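Lab notes, practical 5.
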Amino acid sequence: MSKLIIILLASIFSFKVHSHGGGLNKQGCHNNRKTGDYHCHRGNSSKQSKYPKSGAKSFANEDFFNLKLANHLGGRTEVFYKYDYNINGSTPRIASIRIDIVTDEYVIEGGLDKRSSLDSIQQAVFASTLTGKKPAVAIYDTNGFWGKYEHRIFSSAKKLGVKFFYVSGNQIKELN
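Output from the prediction step:
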């Protein structure tokens, strides 16, 4: 009986030593905010723990790239701002907006090179009205080539005077 108790206690304590918090996503993965590494705890082999190379198929998510860009620019990720959307000015109606990256100068909305990133400029411009900072967008290349979504977002950002960051592999480019 004492051997069983010792085995159970050893199992519990060894699990505690090797586990850590960190807000896993639905794939069981997360970013290490200190090192920028993206890693998984549930054996999901479709995720990569290294920064993807340009042209290589990337399974890293938007959070991975946001953290890399924030670290490069000296910014913070996932910052929330509250705002009142009652146009009549009577009873406040409070909502909030989450900005991917905030630096001393910019509010940056980042997104993968997918259709879902087409609202990035609106998000950045709105955040800039709340903060007084300049709006910027970042597009993260996941397939190794400049595509139609990169082009649409870049063209719109250029026309509106919104800063545009393009992250491909280990390169971070400011294109306007």
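Observations recorded by the TA: Residues 106 and 132 are 9 Å apart (CA to CA). The mean pLDDT is 79.
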